[in-house]
Amino acid sequence: MEDWRSFLEPDGDSLMRIKKRGNMLVDAVVVSDSAHVGKSNDRSLEQLANTASLPGVVGEAWGMADFHQGYGFPIGGVVATDIENGGVISPGGVGFDINCGVRLCSIDLGMEDLIHLTRKKSGSGSKEFGNRLKARIPAGESGKSGFRLSPNDLDGILSEGAKGATEIGIGHDEDLSRMEMKGNLGGDSSSISDVAKRRGLSALGSIGRGNHFLEIQVVDEIMDERTARVFGLEKGRLAAMIHTGSRGLGYQVCSEHVKALEGRYKHHDGFWKSEDWEISISDPQLASAPFFSREGESYFEAMKSAGNYAFANRNCVTQSLRGALKAHLGSEVDVEVIYDVCHNIARVEEHVVHGSNCKCCVHRKGATRAFGGDSMELSEGFGGVGQPVLVPGDMGTSSYVMSGPSRGTNQAFGSSCHGAGRAMSRTEARKKIDGAKVKRELSEKGIAIYETHEKYLSEEAPDAYKDIDDVIRLTENAGLARPVARLRPLIVIKG
């Protein structure tokens, strides 16, 4: 196996480049420096190089500062294909958790109110706030939330996303303007199989396991006062960060289309080739279809509907948070959506690539948009400052709010990192890290963890992730996004 790190060359501030070689059609660029990239010992660079050989790929294949190995595509990968000139769409470039994303909400409470959330109230049956949240917002392996949709309600959500959810009382209309694409990717419920729909009927309002979470945080530091005011961030105020996606419904959609597409390729001379489309790929996990083929369009429609479900899921978790605060404090507390971003999605966008206009299918897998403040696709209210970019850390360190440029589009197709990124596989973390010890250490730091199974904490321990401050530094130095505020975790609900 080749060590792709040996092909990396420095390429400006906090960027490294693999010049096209072998079957690569374009260069691969990684947001990193020699010290940071040296921490990666997985197949992520090889995977990134493989994506640079996809039919119709344009520009460069990008790895964000949090990149690590995934299914086919590296997590933290951004790859665009020219759909008007043979470009493909690949489910592996989106991932199994379609529209896994993050929502950040402001809570109209300050640190002085925290004692009311962390202490046990007097009287029978009362509980501290973390336990109340855990009871209302299911996390873990179960796909069930206790919230049941009717088939008609589900169809409305699959077709209209967060708007479909608000129409049945899940979320507020004013939340919609603070979401990417206003929480609606333009889906069609008929694109979703009956099996996937059944998995979605009872999972709305759940978090899942892995790196998904709900955190109560405090705004710990402001780096950009003007942008923070526009976003609605104030030092010392509480916030809630929600990280979850399309749950079993999205997984089913991806699985169905991956299986169908992989069956169209046969191994030949070290490659996987599709005779039907006369294209070849370097890895069967990159199974793709021409964007305008029947198979490509079928996946794209199903992906959009699954993405709509994820927006509605975060709507439901937000409503459960609002209800838990009211139940705990005895009165309504303002919880306003600051922004909601997609991390795993493919979007059709117009970009200028090496001086020419391109209608691209931009795959962002473990990456987020970072559009400029003059973008026509940006939600209202962010003109002149740029799109909010939400970057969670691990459960023991800070998370960040960043911003896209005030004008224009960055060189990575208007993209940025999406989190800290794994430094260890889950298997390695379970072997090396004691989950019970992690919980004790975090408690000593004032971070209360409410998990479904303590054994999973080893997988999500701070040591299993890259240094979030390092990721933010590299992202800023590369000119992809700028830091606006840092948020510190106080209460963490994990699967």
User: End-to-end span in angstroms?
Assistant: 35 Å
**Helix proportion range:** 25-40%
- Helical region count? 13
- Mean pLDDT comes to 92
The secondary structure category is: alpha+beta
Number of strands: 22
What's the main sheet like?
8 strands, mixed
How much of the sequence lies in strands comes to: 25-35%
* Rg (C-alpha, Å): 21 Å
Unreliable runs, pLDDT <50, ≥5 residues? none
What overall form do the CA principal axes indicate? globular
Question: Can you describe what's shown?
Answer:
By secondary structure, this protein is an alpha+beta fold. Helix content is 27%, strand content 26%. The protein has 13 helices and 22 strands. The strands form five sheets. Strands 7, 8, 9, 14, 18, 19, 21 and 22 form an eight-stranded mixed sheet that branches. It has a seven-stranded mixed sheet with strand order 1-2-3-4-5-16-15, with helices on both faces. Strand 21 (448-451), helix 13 (468-477) and strand 22 (482-494) form a beta-alpha-beta unit. Helix 4 packs antiparallel against helix 10, helix 5 (151-160) crosses helix 10 and helix 9 packs antiparallel against helix 10 (294-329). The longest helix is centred in the middle third of the chain and has 36 residues, at 294-329. The protein starts with 8 loop residues before the first strand and ends with a strand.
